């Protein structure tokens, strides 16, 4: 588990080149909804919340980046990715969630979620790019260590756009006090906005 967490951290920093044949089998198709003003709405309905507890020098941890969503193939809407990003220069992620540990760093997820807008250039061909929502840690020597990361990994395989919700939490507590970390993420939709959309 520790090795996997280190690897995904490296992926978030430098990206990783993965062959499409290795990757495509695990994808879940998102649902595309019609929209009257020309936006492309991909429905993910990802929902994952966890509660960690630790005491007496124990460690509790959880991570998930296993659910990969194929949003769509850009060729459904344009001749190439470059043409697609000209037509749809931004996208909006509708995300809800929490990241709180009142016995350590408090509510670090406050005001972090909602409608998050990014440039479509965020999709890098065959490389991971993290749309980070929460990334926080805290440590008191011989008392506790806590870390939480909530993000959405975005990747492009040629003209296919892929999203991978990512949550990762670790809590270590020393002494008699039991400490808690509650964290999670809901990703409802990822919507691509046309050039003239306001």
Structural class: mainly beta
Annotation field: number of helices: 3
- State the helical fraction: 10-25%
Number of spatially distinct domains: 1
What order do the SSEs take from the amino end to the carboxyl end, as H and E? HHEEEEEHEEEEEEE
Strand-residue proportion: over 45%
Give the low-confidence spans. Answer: 1-26
| Sheet having the most strands | 6 strands, mixed
**pLDDT average, as an integer?**
84
Overall geometry: elongated
N/C terminus separation: 44 Å
Number of strands: 12
**Computed Rg:** 18 Å
If you had to describe this structure to a student in words, what would you say it looks like?
- By secondary structure, this protein is mainly β.
- It has one domain.
- The chain is built from three helices and twelve strands, in the order ααβββββαβββββββ.
- The chain has helices spanning 2-14, 20-23, 81-87; strands at residues 27-29, 31-33, 40-54, 58-64, 68-73, 90-101, 106-107, 114-119, 129-140, 144-157, 160-173, 179-193.
- Strands 1, 4, 5, 9, 10 and 11 form a six-stranded mixed β-sheet that branches.
- A hairpin with a 2-residue loop joins β10 (144-157) and β11 (160-173).
- The longest helix has 13 residues, at 2-14.
- The radius of gyration is 18 Å and the shape is elongated.
- The N and C termini lie far apart (44 Å).
